[in-house]
Write a structure and sequence with these properties.
single chain; disordered N terminus; alpha/beta; seven-stranded mixed sheet
Length: 232
Amino acid sequence: MPSRAADVLPQGEDKVRAVRSMFDAIAPRYDLVNRVMTFRMDVGWRRRAVRSLALDPGAVVVDVACGTGDLCRELVKAGIQPIGVDLSFGMLAAARTAAPLVEGDALRLPFRDGSLDGATCGFALRNFVALEPFLRSLAAVLRPGGRIALLEVAEPPNRLLRWGHGVYFGAVVPRIGALLSDGAAYRYLPRSVAYLPPTEELLAVVRGAGFVDVQRDLLSTGIAQLVTGTRA
């Protein structure tokens, strides 16, 4: 029988170390696993996120938890100038983008206050130690009117779809991860959804950090979500 301790998700600095180590380990095949386990739907989700920024060409946008640079590449295609920030040096080393990359902490972004036009973040909210300081860090570095587009996993509102998604995400995804990359990491990732607060609480935290016109859109029948907002 599995140990109950194995079911306890790490917190605080233990979480920082665990997340950094995990993403260092899965970096070489991260893009491949994403494409396989989402049937390439993640590509469309990122394009939707970039469009939702509605920023003019030449705008400067930080992509937080940029990983291997998927969102950075989409931003470049839209004529936007991205800067990628990630805690994992392994991810940055495996990145496939010409955008400038910085190894850094999302809770203490290394930019001047009010110096950026926007921010993106792809499927990393649940990996931060705390959401409120992350969102306040975003608000600090964005100019008034700056835009955010935050992608994250979600659960479909339809009960039958939610059941099927739970089976796929909880049982099939870990097997795909074990086959193509690191089994332990892809067992952890489905469980890490528990870090996400309920929807209304999440949106309240975004608003409380200094954003207005906050909106949440469900993508692909509700298996992913896009949270957007404007710096007040």
